């Protein structure tokens, strides 16, 4: 008998979307894919697992089989783990505090946390898929958005302890521009403006977790949020670099929402709580932090839109 295949995270997310939307068509609309692509993903997932996840013969609405219900439970755990790993630009310990407080204050208000790469936050806000977004000041085009600055995250240059730039005394002869720099980006090279790119050779990576793993493997160097790599530096797996070409700095963060779509009471409380914690652990105060602006220009977002709906 052939061993079952290994499902991808994307297949599991498609499965969860079908269940949440109640149909393949609804999942296709939400994920902005063709219905045939959704069907193919589910068919492939069933073939890889050697299991039937939906009973398609009883009703027009896809109904989970008993084994399908068990797989969905496991898929939710995987999706939660993936989100936890990927959501690193805004300090995760800070966000956990805010979300726990939110649930205590508004126990009946549903909240959906979406994790996006660079540029994703702004798209979700403008498309109406998220009501409140947390992202980088320099990566969000704030035209038509109301923004509240909430401090920033310290970005530092790091590399594995085995990397030439990390070896004692090598910084004077091995400059950063001579080594591959890993750059977090969701755009093709040449599109938009780069920030903090000094190397002649770059690899663009669309996921912060993958960038982290590449750095730990000894490949390249790059800037990372200090809270994300703190334990790696303490254990010696990564080394904070002292580079004349790129010393890092504070990455300003902001909360944004559409000017015409004001948050309700729960959403306003969430924004105020994020502002209140902006000077807490993992965050750095930047000039003008906690300033509210109805903006006309700024740029395009990273990492973490939140949607809150008050009943």
Q: What structural class should be given to the helix and strand makeup? A: alpha+beta
Instruction: Tell me the radius of gyration.
Output: 22 Å
CATH topology group of the largest domain: D-Maltodextrin-Binding Protein, domain 2
The CATH class designation of the largest domain is Alpha Beta
Proportion of residues in β-strands: 15-25%
Order of H and E elements:
HHHEEHHEHEEEEHEHEEHEE
Let me know the average pLDDT: 76
The CATH architecture of the largest domain can be named as 3-Layer(aba) Sandwich
Strand segment tally: 12
Structural shape? globular
Describe this structure in words.
It is a single chain. With 311 residues, the chain is an alpha+beta fold. The protein has 2 domains: 9-86, Winged helix-like DNA-binding domain superfamily/Winged helix DNA-binding domain (Arc Repressor Mutant, subunit A), CATH 1.10.10.10; 88-311, 3-Layer(aba) Sandwich (D-Maltodextrin-Binding Protein, domain 2), CATH 3.40.190. It has helices at 9-21, 24-31, 35-49, 66-86, 92-105, 120-127, 208-217, 226-235, 265-276, and strands at 54-55, 63-64, 111-113, 132-136, 145-160, 181-184, 202-205, 222-225, 238-240, 249-258, 292-294, 305-308. The strands form 3 sheets. Strands 3, 4, 5, 8, 9, 10, 11 and 12 form an 8-stranded antiparallel β-sheet that branches. A hairpin with a 7-residue loop joins β1 and β2. α1 (9-21) packs across α2, α1 (9-21) crosses α3 and α5 (92-105) runs antiparallel to α9. The chain is globular and about 65 Å long. The N and C termini lie far apart (51 Å). 35% of the residues are buried. Residues 80-88, 285-290 and 295-311 have low confidence and may be disordered.
């Amino acid at each position: 008998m052939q061993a079952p295949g290994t499902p991808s995270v994307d297949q599991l997310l498609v499965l969860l979307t079908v269940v949440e939307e109640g149909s393949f068509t609804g999942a296709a609309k939400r994920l902005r894919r063709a219905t045939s692509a959704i069907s193919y993903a589910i068919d492939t997932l069933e073939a890889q697992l050697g299991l039937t996840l939906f009973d398609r013969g009883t009703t027009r609405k896809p109904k989970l089989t008993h084994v399908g219900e068990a797989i969905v439970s496991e898929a939710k755990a995987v999706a939660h783990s993936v989100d936890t790993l990927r959501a690193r630009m805004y300090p995760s310990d800070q966000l956990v505090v805010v979300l726990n407080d939110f649930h205590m204050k508004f126990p009946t208000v549903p909240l959906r946390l979406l994790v996006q790469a660079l540029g994703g936050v702004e798209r979700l806000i403008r498309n109406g898929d998220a009501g409140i977004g947390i992202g980088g000041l320099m990566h969000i085009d704030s035209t038509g958005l109301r923004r509240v600055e909430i401090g920033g995250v310290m970005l530092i240059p790091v590399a594995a302890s085995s990397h030439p730039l990390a070896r004692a005394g090598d910084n004077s002869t091995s400059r950063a521009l001579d080594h591959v720099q890993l750059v977090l980006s969701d755009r093709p090279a040449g599109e938009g403006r780069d920030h903090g790119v000094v190397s002649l050779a770059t690899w663009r990576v669309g996921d912060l977790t993958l960038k982290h793993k590449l750095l730990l493997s000894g490949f390249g160097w790059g800037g990372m949020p200090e809270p994300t790599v703190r334990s790696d530096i303490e254990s010696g797996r990564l080394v904070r670099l002292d580079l004349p070409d790129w010393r890092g700095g504070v990455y300003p963060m902001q909360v944004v929402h559409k000017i015409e779509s004001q948050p309700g009471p729960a959403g306003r409380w969430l924004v105020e709580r994020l502002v209140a914690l902006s000077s807490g652990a993992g965050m750095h105060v930047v000039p003008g932090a906690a300033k509210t602006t109805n903006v006309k220009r700024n740029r395009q977002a990273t990492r973490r839109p939140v949607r809150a709906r008050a009943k």
